[in-house]
Design goal:
By secondary structure, this protein is of the alpha/beta class. The chain contains eleven helices and twelve strands. It has helices at about 30-40, 50-55, 65-70, 85-95, 105-110, 110-120, 150-160, 180-185, 200-210, 225, 230-240; strands at about 1-10, 15-20, 20-30, 45-50, 75-80, 100, 125-130, 135, 140-145, 160-165, 195, 215-220. The chain has an eight-stranded parallel β-barrel, surrounded by eight helices. Strand 10 (about 160-165), helix 8 and strand 11 form a beta-alpha-beta unit. Helix 1 (about 30-40) runs parallel beside helix 3 and helix 9 (about 200-210) packs parallel to helix 11. The protein is globular, with a radius of gyration of 17 Å. InterPro entries: Aldolase_TIM, His_biosynth, HisA/PriA, HisA_bact_arch, Isoase_HisA-like, RibuloseP-bd_barrel.
Length: about 260
Amino acid sequence: MDVIPAIDLLEGRCVRLYQGDYDRSQVFSDNPADVAKQWVDQGATRLHIVDLDGAKAGKVVNLGAIEAIAHAVSVPIEIGGGLRDRTSVQQLFNLGIQWAILGTIAVEQPQLVQELCQEFPEQIIVGIDARNGRVATRGWLETSEVLATQLAVQMQELGAAAIIYTDIHRDGTLIGPNLEALRELAAVISIPIIASGGVSSVTDLLSLLALEPQGVTGVIVGRALYTGDILLKEALRAIGTGRIQDIPPNLDFSTFA
């Protein structure tokens, strides 16, 4: 299972939000490229970037910071936030970004998603951000009536390479991932699922590892890395290898059932 560090960009800085609330942001660095290098130096093989300003504006805003990150590291990068037209997606691919994450247009313009999946095969990921099981759009500022599972099935049919599922109520809270919602999602689609939101410990990561046979192939970790609740090297030893000797002692595996 991939452990993917998150870098959220707001006004050019690396921040974390609490439950997607822009008014409850915490700045962790003024130099996102240095943060990216830090995670790669610790063993990250993939990075997750969100342009928070872009998500609100509906277009790429933090292009300078994104370009600096792309130049600073050599690992694959996935980026979301404000990608609502072909030009924005192409703009990122021109920088060498590996995957574009589409969110709002998956609900509002599914035909465009299909066209982009056809033009850029295996490079389009759909981000499904859910609040009480329903999809939120436009930087999580609006909640639709579309069910997360319903949208996931549709996006799989349109050619999405993977689904990133975020439980908004858990994002940035360190209260643990929504395992039930991930199981429900895995039951209806066969493309890879990347979990996001609430991960607070290696124990949480191991609970997600138990879902890997069902299709949960990666996990995005944000606040817990920045606060030190999770050490990336430790997480990669325990999850990246899946070796039993790397799993912390006295762990209650019954909680993963």
